[in-house]
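ok trying this again, last paste got cut off
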Amino acid sequence: MPHPALAGFTEKVREIAGLRILDLGCGSGRHLVALAEKGYDVEGVDFSPEAVRIAKDWLESRELPGNAYVADIHEKLQTYKAAEFDAIIAINSLNFQTSDEFLKSIKEINRLLKTGGIVLLVVPSKNALILKPEVEQIFVNEEALRIALKDRLEILDLHVDEDKNYVVIARETKKS
């Protein structure tokens, strides 16, 4: 099942024709498939070869366009051209890094989005359920999240989901 916030995200992007979406931390492809089924051109990146294989097989089995790549998200971000995507999703994937790396990732997301592009971020709050306690990760508060997005992304929606993650839908506003 896709994250519940995907419905709000697709509502914001539905009027963009030929939409190209990047899924950072695509895992086994649950969001790639859901978005490809809506007719979007999708691309995913994940560090797990097994997850990427599953995502590719799932897209292929449904005869859906799209692709997924095995790579470190933070390194892969730097290989894309500026303004290459209409939208980017990062659901529980950008928190597996330091605070400085998180800020760099936000800057890269801004660079990759076309003017007016939409981003869906899901990041754990300090009260979130810890899914992988053995893995180092960051947890944010609302103020820190707003500061990280300030001057780059206009927040269209910010709320806490049932797992106590911050869910943000934002629009690219400035290239910095």
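PB: full thing came through this time. The radius of gyration is 15 Å.
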